[in-house]
Each structure stands twice: as structure tokens, then as C-alpha cells.
């Protein structure tokens, strides 16, 4: 069962999922504020959202054979922010955070030895097995707390 809802139907067709009984922030300009739909539904098929709107208007064809979750009135919002992390890194960047809190620009942080360059170079200073071990731990921690999909890409 997925986090955030009680499963209420089985799955007959691969790749189709419904979330029902949701509060939706649709960002529809025809609706006030954030385009709120109080009794909403979201349907996804093949990894893409194919419907977001009022549950009463959900086409019956999307209900048939879908894995369905009752989200019990929880809020569903678009993924508006591309916040991300890197699983492979060494050390920490707390000193950069401190500098930014004191008003330093990104250029000033870089001149003080921070920024992206050290965060790319430093991981190569630790063993591949240690990088793998730390990355698996971080990945498991993120997966346990995340409702959004993760993506993995190689960096060169």
C-alpha cells in the first residue's frame, strides 16, 4: 500500500493509478486562488497524469481496472519546485550556509572556497565502496520520506 491513502480497489491494468477523495491545487486560472477542487481525483497512466479535477467528472473509463487509493481529503499539489539533492558527496557545506545567512553572494562563497567545484572534486577523494555505502543509506532515507519520484542520472 502506498503512503498517504488506503487502497480501495485492485489493479487489473498495469500502469493506471487513481487517487480519490483529494483536495487538489490545480492552478487552473478559471478557479479562484490556487484552483482548489475540494473533492478531487487524479488519474495517472503510464507514468503521466491523464486527469486532475472533480471526482464527479472523472471518466468511468479511467476507473476501470485502476489501482485506486483513497487519500482521505489530503492535499495534492503539482510538483512546483525542482529541489534536488546529490547522493554522492563528501563533507558538508554548512560553512556555505552560514556565509549565505550573513548575506554573502554565490560568487563570494566560491571565492571563500565553497560552491559547486569542491562538492564535485571532494567525492573523488573517498573510496568507491564508501561512496556506494553512503549513497545507499541516503537513498533509502530519501525514499522512506518522499512522496515524489526520484530520478537518477550520471554526471560526467
User: Which band does the percent of strand residues land in?
Assistant: 15-25%
Q: What kind of sheet is the major sheet?
A: 6 strands, mixed
Number of helices: 5
The count of DSSP E runs of length 2 or more, i.e. the number of strands, is 6
Please bin the fraction of helical residues.
25-40%
What is the terminal-to-terminal distance?
37 Å
- Average per-residue pLDDT, rounded, comes to 80
Briefly note the structural class of the backbone.
alpha/beta
| Low-confidence regions | 1-13
Could you give the order of the helices and strands?
EEEEHEEHHHH
Shape: elongated
- Based on CA atoms alone, the radius of gyration comes out at 21 Å
Considering the chains and any ligands shown, give keywords for the structure.
156 residues, alpha/beta, six-stranded mixed β-sheet, 27% helix, 24% strand, elongated
What does this structure look like?
This protein is an alpha/beta fold and 156 residues long. It is built from five helices and six strands. Strands 1, 2, 3, 4, 5 and 6 form a six-stranded mixed β-sheet that branches. β3 and β4 (48-54) form a beta hairpin. The chain is elongated.
SSE inventory with pairings:
Blueprint (H helix, E strand, L loop, with lengths): L5 E4 L6 E10 L10 E10 L2 E7 L5 H4 L3 E4 L4 E2 L17 H8 L4 H6 L4 H6 L6 H18 L11
Kindly summarize this structure in a few lines.
The chain has 156 residues and is α/β, with parallel strands linked by helices. 27% of the residues lie in helices and 24% in strands. Strands 1, 2, 3, 4, 5 and 6 form a 6-stranded mixed sheet that branches.
Amino acid at each position: 500500500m502506498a503512503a498517504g491513502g488506503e487502497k480501495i480497489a485492485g489493479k487489473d491494468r498495469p500502469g493506471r493509478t487513481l487517487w480519490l477523495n483529494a483536495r487538489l491545487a490545480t492552478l487552473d486560472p478559471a478557479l479562484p486562488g490556487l484552483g482548489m477542487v475540494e473533492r478531487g481525483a487524479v488519474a495517472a497512466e503510464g507514468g503521466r497524469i491523464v486527469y486532475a479535477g472533480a471526482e464527479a467528472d472523472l471518466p468511468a473509463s479511467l476507473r476501470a481496472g485502476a489501482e485506486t487509493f483513497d487519500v482521505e481529503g489530503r492535499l495534492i499539489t503539482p510538483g512546483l519546485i525542482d529541489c534536488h539533492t546529490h547522493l554522492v558527496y563528501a563533507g558538508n557545506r554548512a560553512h556555505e550556509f552560514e556565509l549565505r545567512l550573513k548575506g554573502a553572494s554565490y560568487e563570494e562563497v566560491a571565492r571563500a572556497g565553497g560552491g559547486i567545484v569542491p562538492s564535485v572534486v571532494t567525492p573523488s577523494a573517498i573510496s568507491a565502496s564508501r561512496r556506494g555505502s553512503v549513497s545507499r543509506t541516503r537513498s533509502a532515507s530519501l525514499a522512506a520520506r518522499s512522496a515524489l519520484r526520484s530520478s537518477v542520472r550520471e554526471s560526467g
